[in-house]
Amino acid sequence: MHSKATPIREDGIYHSFCGLVSVGWLYQKIKDSFFLILGTHTCAHLLQNTLGVMIFARPRFAVSLLEESDLSSSQPDIAAQIEEIKREHHPSVIFLLSSCTPEVMKVEFEGLAASVSTPEVPVLFVPASGLDYTFSQSEDSVLQALIPFCPPAPPDDKRVVFLGSVNDAIADDFSLEAARLGIPVAGFLPASHFTELPPIGPGTVIAPLQPYLHKTATQLRNERGCTVLSSLFPFGPDGTRRFWEDLAAQFGMRVDLSDREAAAWERIKHHTDLLRGKKVFFASDTLMELPLARFLKACGAEVVECSTPYINRRFHAAELAALEGVRLVEQANFHRQLRTIAETKPDLIISNIITTNPLVGQGTVAKWGTEYCFLPIHGWAGVNNLVTSFTRALQRHAQLDPLGSDPIWLTGMMPSSAGGVISLQS
Amino acid sequence: MRLAYWMYEGTAHHGVGRIANSMRNVHAVFHAPQGDDYVNAIFAMLDRTPNFPAMTTSVVSGTDLARGTIRLPDTLRQVEERVHPDLIVVVASCSTILLQENLEIAAQHAGLQCDVMVYDANPYRMQEIVAAESLFTDLVKRYAQPQPRTERPTVNILGPASLGFHARHDLISLRRMLKTLGLEINVVAPWGASIADLRRLPAAWLTIAPYRELGLRAATYLEEQFGVPALLDAPIGVQPTLRWIERLRELLAQAGAEIPMPPLTAFSLDGMSAPSAVPWFARTADMDSFSGKPAFVFGDATHVVGITRFLRDELGMPIAGAGTYVKHQADWVREQLTGYVDDLLVTDEFQTVANRIAELRPELVCGTQMERHTSRRYDLNCMVISPPTHIENHLLAYRPFLGFDGADVIADEVYTTCTLGMEKHLIDLFGDAGLDLPEKREGVAVAEPAPVAPPVESSKPLAESPVAVAVTSAPAPSQTSPAAVTSAPAPVDPVWAADAEAMLKKVPFFVRGRVRGNVEKYARQRGHAVITAEVLLAAKEELGA
């Protein structure tokens, strides 16, 4: 075991989703937005297959499709498409997302966005290509693009802005909780509408709700001179207590939420009993891994490995400190992970949507890490959702008849596999 | 450049993945950004693969581009070490192909024991179907060896593949029929085939390749190169299946094998009944009303031809129109559907198909998942008959489209999708037949007509579903007609006057949307800006609605 939380960086032969996928929740969060991806058939196929099952009305996202004849021009003409989008969807803002091919073509995106942007309907460039961004990371790019549209706040406006897209119910919880503690709230970035962005200035305290937004936090600190809260992310009784106590301290208040934390732990005791001593392996790709692993560690589980695409030492400092002693891996090598899984035999694997079914097919208990991007697991109200998301998988598998694990039930399920479980031990 | 919302075909690298994931000990390596790794998820989720899909992304990152790093040789070595494949197929992506790297040399650098094939699939010139078909043909050409025929007559089945549309079910149906005929199978490919199996392909007496999209060219090659006769028809429907069996026996007889025809009952599931219930079903009084239910069919080449003919020839339904997104097969489809369809729609743009459906307002839409979206919007009955596959096409029970068994499955699907005969008469006579629901629930009922398949969407309660309902049922005149929803070149939409609106309310709820659309179309054609009760009556008379 490592004595310090020192991440190991591997070569990144891993399975992950493209950064464009975050469009799936952002277009729903920002209700007057439209997301236009300048990309290829590949981008359209990606969005269709990752988001298509959820959507059947009119999606407020589309691909401006680059075809072979478009490859030679370095500055594609998207004016007509922008008009079409305005005509059909009436958005207040259009996000223009980059993708791999136009990046290789060296399309000058800033200029392209500016050329079709109007004061009435701004078109904002968002770097999101799968060359550089994974899964949740491009939310960071979208929020960065919104910064110029947050009105400036005077220095004496000392209020908190919560950072990260959460649904309205979670936002209400956080507003209420802040009011209860006497913390003044300026708003949320992003807000539900482009027209409702919060004022941000030197007196603002930025409180990050999601662990994948370090670029936005840094830019706000540099450009607006605001303070970025450095604490645990508000997941689990431990994280939520630290988050509110540290946030209150920013407003000169000392609050002690130890009773509140103890009561929250007591309410989920049945679940933490089940998690205590269980070996958990994180092999997912959402960038939620650090706080989730920290919560499980606090539950008494043994985190045998926590792999995550990227770690930012400053933004994740409090989480890293709390994870001391846990094996942390950045850009893990998938083949090596499989060997480690075979050696350590974890009781539960949090993996990504690509590897979960196959890992279950190898006789492990695995669950989608992807879900944590959509589950209401924030704050005090999210504690129960958070803990049951882990225990549900364990309990469900324990409940199923063990006869079902016989390789015979997998025969013929996959044409390229002769049939049966291929043991990770072999 | 154009604005794209939904695609019918996957990408070239997805097509390559489908072949690799179908075969034993074949692995695909994508020289691509990590974003292109999503195709793995499609296999793991839709095919619910209990093992890792047979493909790996050799990640190209932005910093790799700047430094000129190429990780491919190292990835190839790691893949060989972990999965010990017989063959690795390397393919570039839409972005890395622009780098014009020499992947052959990079692959040689890896110094592998197994075969490596750098497959030149230009993603701007080919999509899923052509990439998969060309790769499979190349593999057959590369590995098939001249050899004597098997002692007893055997057949190859080419075409079933991972993520194929009901492919596993079709394969069971074909196997059942061949077994009834006493024929053995030489090789099935790509489904479950190894490289060694591809070598043995020329030992068969006959090749069956039922799909126009995959296996056709390899079967033709085996015929031309090795003299293995090819049966390229798709046995969709009862009559086509009977003709298919006849043709199969003829071809084998020409090859020197007399295959006796067993009694038809031998093809049934219990071995003692009619092999399909369709011929009798089609003659029952219940089915009379189907002669007045026009259908629109859209999908890949194989299924559009098979289903269109089945609906007209075996169920007696009129064909309102048909179309395909497989452009390189359009001539074949047109020829096959001569006499069935005058104006074949050939397009891969989903909006164009949606507009055609909106125009035709057929009683039944047979299409892909996209047409299901469209039909829901226009409140039309829809069944899915063609890829792209969706989780709802990966069902557990036996639901083939081919053979006698497939004919029963398709007929059941048509029957349960359409509004039924006697029910329709009651509704016509009494208006709502007691089926009308309070206005509040109308939208819900309309958006979800007892469908072919339960909507997956509902399992994820997202903000979109109420939107969809609001769009389809929009009762207020200000919301205009559904046609305004798509990019249809919509002229000014007529407004409903109160008296007409009240009359429309008396139309049964589950056909109301269709009547509304037809009347609005009528009003537009006649230049009525306001739909009054008089206009509605005139439209009813004119349209017989």
3D structure, described in words:
The complex is a heterodimer of chains A (426) and B (545). Chain A is of the alpha/beta class and 426 residues long. Chain A is built from 16 helices and 14 strands. Chain A has helices spanning 23-29, 41-51, 79-89, 100-104, 109-116, 137-146, 168-181, 214-224, 236-250, 258-267, 269-275, 289-298, 317-322, 334-344, 356-361, 383-399, and strands spanning 8-9, 33-39, 61-65, 93-97, 123-126, 160-163, 185-189, 205-208, 227-228, 279-283, 302-308, 328-330, 348-351, 366-368. In chain A, helix 7 links the parallel strand 6 (160-163) and strand 7 (185-189). In chain A, helix 6 packs parallel to helix 8, helix 9 (236-250) packs antiparallel against helix 10 and helix 11 (269-275) packs across helix 16 (383-399). The longest helix of chain A is centred in the C-terminal third of the chain and has 17 residues, at 383-399. The model of chain A has no long low-confidence stretch (mean pLDDT 91). Chain B is α/β, with parallel strands linked by helices. In chain B, 43% of the residues lie in helices and 12% in strands. Chain B contains 22 helices and 16 strands. In chain B, strands 12-11-10-13-14 form a five-stranded parallel beta sheet, sandwiched between helices. Chain B has a four-stranded parallel beta sheet with strand order 3-2-4-5, sandwiched between helices. Chain B has a four-stranded parallel beta sheet with strand order 7-6-8-9, sandwiched between helices. In chain B, strand 13, helix 15 and strand 14 (381-384) form a beta-alpha-beta unit. Chain B starts with a strand and ends with a helix. Chains A and B meet through helix 2, strand 3, helix 3, helix 4 and helix 15 of A and strand 1, helix 1, helix 2, strand 3 and helix 4 of B. Strand 3 (61-65) of chain A pairs antiparallel with strand 1 of chain B.
